[in-house]
Amino acid sequence: MNCLLPTDFDRHDDVIVGVIANPASGRDIRRLTAKASVFTAAEKANMVQRLLGPFGALGVDRVMIMPDSSGIAATVERSAQINRSRGESVWPLIEQVKMKSTGGVEDSQNAARIMRDAGARAIVVLGGDGTHRVIAKVVPELPMATLSTGTNNVFPDWREATVTGIATALHVTGRIDPSITLRRNKQLRVNLGEYTDIALVDVCVTRLTHVGARAVWDPDTIAELFVAFAEPDAIGLSSIAAMINPLTRDEPRGLCLRCGTEGRRVLAAIAPGVLETVVIDHCEIMQPGVRYAIRTERGSIALDGEREIEFHRGQVPRVTLELNGPPTLDVSSTLAAAARLGVMATPCAREMLR
Amino acid sequence: MNTELNRESLLKAYRMMRTIREFEERVHTDFATGEIPGFVHLYAGEEASATGVCMHLSGNDYIASTHRGHGHCIAKGVDPAGMMAEIWGKETGTCKGKGGSMHIADLSKGMLGANGIVGGGGPLICGTALAAKLRGDKTVGVCFFGDGASNQGTILEAMNLATVWNLPAIFVAENNGYAETTSPNYSVACENIADRAAAFGMPGVIVDGFDFFAVYEAAGEAVKRAREGGGPTLIEVKVSRYYGHFEGDQQKYRAEGEVQKLRNEKDCLMQFRRHVTADGDISAAELDAIDAEVLAMIDDSVVRAKADPKPGPEELLTDVYVSY
Ligand SMILES: Cc1ncc(C[n+]2csc(CCOP(=O)(O)OP(=O)(O)O)c2C)c(N)n1
Ligand SMILES: [Mg+2]
User: Fold this and answer.
1) Which tops the pLDDT comparison, A348 or A322?
2) ipTM computed for the complex
3) What residue spans of chain B are helical by DSSP H?
């Protein structure tokens, strides 16, 4: 290993990081109804490779990557071989997870479980809100470093992979304390009889009675909205809530909104390139642990922007804000701490700062 | 777009899908007796695709189909009795019994034809879409093609041309997991056929082909966009077929129980029925009545097809070429 920093961290076991790049993310109907971006498999493979330099330089030993048939993992493996044969072995060892691919969301979930069981200290996820959601469902306590592969997302970071790679490596090698590197997220739980599921950003109750093409793009179909956080500079449904009552990712509260024909009209960017008016006639703070009943008689429920659940007359789904959602890497505070503590600087460079 | 369908449309969609299913199940049974001449490729399992798309089309819109074309024909309004007679090679058939399963065409319905040439539909649709654009009549053309066809130069050229000319064309890739016996995992150089749309500068979306509503919504947006002059769209419908590549295919390449599992868990008719009856908008009895009517209609079409005469030898050289 060609680690460029002192390896005075816990080297008990190999330092393993998982990487899951969802090849299917960014292909839903929003390409058609909005001007949502398209990330090619080639770009996803490039992003993964941009993680590997920082990983190698900072002491990550092994990277487990989810296999896929679009060639993301294969491209990365090939590059790693070329890298090695040139003697530039600064990258960690790359291995594809041994699993059967189905092309569905189960792939990401299976890969995440295998990575956790193999001792991965974090998973870097390349995908949208949906990809992060399905992974958080199966490995709720494994830290995720989030990377958005599209313009449609709120939960994952929209940033350069190299930087995420540095922060991830600083976290998994224990150079910076988890109290700084990790952020505990909120989540929304939906219960319908026996059925339960989660959303990381928003739960939208629509009047559309079918799951159909999944996305929600017509404001007239929105009946109720529950958000775990609402950032005014976000895209998508949570931005509606943000225009009424912004809510950070850290406040122990959520928000519940109901739409009507009279009330406060807000303009919000509900999809890339789409600014729509939504009429809100009720808005209340959600307290954690309290079950909020859905008032709509029948319809479908979108989790983080995608319709997942259909419910019928006589059924009352409930939404609960939970404070123990998945931990994610806080890249900004990790790198700020790295600078403050001089982690990336040699002792004499540190002197210069003083 | 309001994607909620009214009762009438829901019943129409159900009847369409049921008609395709019943037609295919019947051809499957009858083909095994050896009485049907030629080759048939059945569409059972994929009904939601043709139906979800064609529900948005009128008689003036065109579609181009594939070797697996019965579903597209029925969804575009071609008379099932004429189709049955065609498959049986009878002069009462849609093409006077001279085309057979793989060449059923009915221009009066905007159905350009099933097509023995894999990938043959793309250029045809560019033609009708160009005509529509020049006429300015807001009609559209839909090219159905398979995952195998997605690798054909004709399809890729057609998608390029449709973008270059900004044509009112919709490309519907019916990815049923096999081209004859080959999985797209071996032959398609990307995870999704929809991924290719980006290279041609058109939107590409993926929908679940067992879910009528998913196809219907995506196709609705694509058709609307095309009619408004927004240009072409690629929709990838992820689906499967219930029967072999052709009738008689032993299907050794398929996992045991694969089809049964799909029939039990994903079947488009089953899902549709569950959905529309859940809130009592439509009763199971109404759907049962449609099932019975369709069955009687298919029965009748077979009885007539069997009894009808074959084209005579004097017909051998007629209808071979179309003069324009
Ligand atoms: C140009 C051409 N090449 C090869 C064939 C032989 N052939 C007939 S169907 C088929 C497979 C088509 O697969 P796909 O496009 O996925 O359609 P599906 O059968 O699955 O509906 C092939 C190779 C043909 N008919 N035409
Ligand atoms: Mg196929």
Assistant:
1) A322
2) 0.75
3) 7-31, 47-54, 70-75, 80-87, 121-135, 153-164, 184-187, 197-200, 212-227, 258-265, 268-278, 284-307
For the entire predicted model, the pTM comes to 0.87
CB atoms within 10 A of CB B200: 18
Which residue's CA is minimally distant from atom 2 of ligand 1? B118
How many CB contacts within 8 angstroms connect chain A with chain B? Answer: 87
Residue B278 structural domain: 7-307
Beta strands in A228-311 (DSSP E): 254-271, 274-286, 291-293, 299-303, 306-311
**Confidence (pLDDT) at A29:** 84
**Residue B240 placed within a domain:** yes
- Separation in Å, CA A21 to CA A24, A303, B85: 9, 20, 51
Which of B66, B67, B242 should be mutated for ligand 1, with most atoms under 8 A from CB?
B67
Q: Residue B314 domain-assigned?
A: no
Task: Domain A16-185+326-351: give its CATH architecture.
Answer: 3-Layer(aba) Sandwich (3.40)
Mean pLDDT of A288-302: 97
**b vs e for B295-308, b when ≥16 Cβ sit within 10 Å of the residue's Cβ?**
eebbeebbeebeeb
Q: DSSP letter for A43, please.
A: H
- B217 Cβ under 8 Å from any chain A Cβ: yes
Question: Which of A27, A209, A211 is closest, CB to CB, to B206?
Answer: A27
**Residue A205 forms beta bridges with which residues?**
A224, A301
Q: Which residue from B144, B124, B168, B132 is spatially nearest to B60, judged by alpha carbons?
A: B132
* Least Cα separation, residue A71 to chain B (angstroms): 7
Task: Please name the fold of domain A187-322.
Answer: Tumour Suppressor Smad4 (2.60.200)
Helix axes B47-54, B268-278, angle to 10 degrees: 60
CATH code where residue B52 lies = 3.40.50.970
> What residue segments make up the domains of chain A, in order of their start?
16-185+326-351, 187-322
